[in-house]
Design goal:
354 residues, alpha/beta, Rossmann fold, Helicase, Ruva Protein, domain 3, 3 domains, five-stranded parallel β-sheet, two-stranded antiparallel sheet, 16 helices, binds adenosine-5'-diphosphate, binds magnesium ion
Length: 354
């Protein structure tokens, strides 16, 4: 169960983000990254922070959904009130109702005294429903009413309690298809999804990887007494850039902390990284450079091979949408198309081409 005003986030340094006017400052509260995707998210967050609209944040696990929810709360007029987090996936269905609405003494076996729920705790603040897609359809009906009317009764109680709350939800599920499968109520979906925010997975905003790595290292120098920032050699940077990050920023954060603490040398070398990162990174400069010398293919052929693998990688990443691949490579689309033709690069047979 999580009930926290995310104090760890609050305590992080505040970096002021570029804003439209001096009165329109958005505090990023420990959010690092400069990718287009993140900039767009922050721009939307800045706008919605000024409103009381419901926000639904989509994104894979570890992409920063809770962090963004927190930044919206902290930048809103409710920032002096609480941000109450409820993880709908972590609390068993039968307990969730009383967690949300509280209960009266004797409401069910074991309810020895009355207890207030998260809705009441969030009064004058923000309530954040994490993993909203995991909530049972029965509870979704009760949630809809509470959100719509901003009032509810405790379990086993008859007094109607009114609250003043702002609702932010997050999910890593495709709620549209959950609606199709009868697992998520459409009326609740529209109520929650007034302002949707999509956070891209880290593998789709690789520009942020080294910035985040640096940010987490700097955070360590503040947290760990006597810790000095380490240097990541080129091959380590390349491996971090090429790895797919299924656990997203949470995985990167943990890795940076682990290697920074366990490796005592000042420079982090490729062999200091866990094998799964080295093996899963698509290209690894140090290995490929050595193999060029070993194979004796020479400069021109090696450069051609490297270009080809970069292009293939970008095309695979973007499911062969050439305009997007060109964007990823920071290359003109026409140049990319020419290179694909010249190098006879072809999609794998099962891959749909756009
Ligand atoms: N842009 C970012 N800059 C710095 N830290 C980040 C960023 N995005 C996420 N994090 C950190 O990564 C971890 C996972 O983020 P979280 O918001 O819990 O993700 P989610 O809710 O999507 O699972 C947290 O420790 C968070 O502080
Ligand atoms: Mg989360």
């Amino acid at each position: 169960m999580t009930l926290a005003p995310s104090s760890s986030v609050q305590n992080q340094s505040r970096i002021s983000c570029e804003s439209k006017s001096s009165t329109d400052v958005f505090n990023r509260i420990g959010i690092a990254g400069t990718s287009k995707g993140l900039t767009k998210v922050l721009d939307t967050a800045r706008k919605v922070a000024k409103s009381d609209s419901s926000v639904l944040i989509y994104g894979e696990s570890g992409t920063g959904k809770e962090l963004i929810a927190n930044s919206i709360h902290q930048n809103s007029s409710r920032h002096k009130g609480p941000m109450v987090v409820i993880n709908c996936g972590a609390i068993p269905g039968e307990l969730l109702e009383s967690e949300l609405f509280g209960h009266e003494k004797g409401a069910f076996t074991g309810a020895h005294r009355s207890r207030i729920g998260r809705f009441e705790l969030a009064d004058q603040g923000t309530i954040f429903f994490d993993e909203i897609g995991d909530m049972s359809p029965e509870l979704q009906v009760k949630l809809l009413r509470a959100i719509q009317e901003r009032q509810f009764e405790r379990v086993g109680g008859s007094t109607t309690i009114k609250v003043d709350i702002r609702v932010i939800s997050a999910t890593n599920k495709d709620l549209q298809s959950a609606i199709g499968d009868g697992l998520f109520r459409e009326d609740l979906y529209y109520r929650l999804n007034v302002i949707p925010i999509h956070i891209q997975p880290l593998r789709e905003r690789r520009e942020d990887i080294l910035i985040l790595s640096d940010y987490f290292q700097k955070a360590l120098t503040k947290r760990v007494n006597g810790y000095e920032k380490k240097t990541f050699c080129k091959s380590v940077q390349q491996a971090l850039l090429s790895y797919d990050w299924p656990g997203n920023i949470r995985e990167l954060e943990n890795l940076i902390e682990r290697i920074s603490v366990l490796i005592e040398n000042q420079t982090i070398e490729l062999h200091d990284l866990p094998d799964y990162i080295i093996n899963n990174s698509c290209e690894n400069i140090s290995t490929s450079v050595t193999s060029v010398f070993d194979s004796g293919i020479g400069f021109n052929q090696a450069v051609d091979q490297y270009q080809k693998s970069l292009i293939l990688h970008a095309l695979d990443e973007t499911r062969w949408v050439k305009a997007r691949a060109a964007e990823l490579l920071k290359m003109n689309r026409t140049t990319l198309v020419e290179k694909i033709k010249k190098m006879k690069i072809e999609p794998k047979s099962e891959m749909p081409v756009f």
